Amino acid sequence: MGLPSGHSIRTAVVAMLLVPILISSAFAETLSKRDMDARMTAATDLVDAMGGRESIVEQINRVIPLQMLALQKQFPTMTVESHRIIENSLREEFMNGVDMLLGRIAGTYAHRFTTDEMRSMAHFNRSDAGRKLREQSDDLQRELREISAKWGEEIAKRVGERLQEQMNKPPPLTS
């Protein structure tokens, strides 16, 4: 048997160099898929710990009557039967989409936080303090908006007073 040709030696060398790269690349993709699966599991648990499903259902139950009221105003001659069909269809479509929405929300968390961070957040949300924070969040947000609005009004008032002072100053003397 003769010596291998230059072409076959080059092919063997390239294969020796590429195989470990391809294997490590495939391993990295598997790890990254495993990591993303772990993140999605943690994110789904976090959304659950935060009361995601209950919150969405609560919003649906608030929004549908408001939408129906707006439709009734827009179409005052709408029949009771049409009203019922539309309301039932809205409710069914919204409720059928809850899992998809929760999955998208979980995906957003999974891309921003590590598995350990999400597990810590879920643990906090299941604690007494986390539950209290969720229970108080609507009132807290309303209060914080009021505080911010009042702060903005105070700044606007002071800026207006400064402007008035500047306008009331006599013009500087010039020679």
- What's the Cα radius of gyration? 31 Å
Helical region count? 6
- Specify the structural class: mainly alpha
The 3D shape can be described as: extended
Cα distance spanning the termini: 110 Å
Largest sheet: none
Series of secondary-structure elements, N-terminal to C-terminal: HHHHHH
Average of per-residue pLDDT values: 86
Assess the beta-strand content as a share of residues.
under 5%
- Low-confidence runs: none
| Oligomeric state as shown | single chain
Helix percentage range: over 70%
The count of β-strands is 0
How does this structure look, described?
The protein has 175 residues and is an all-alpha fold. The protein has a domain at 35-147. The chain is 87% helix and 0% strand. The chain contains six helices and no strands. The N and C termini lie far apart (110 Å). The model has no long low-confidence stretch (mean pLDDT 86).
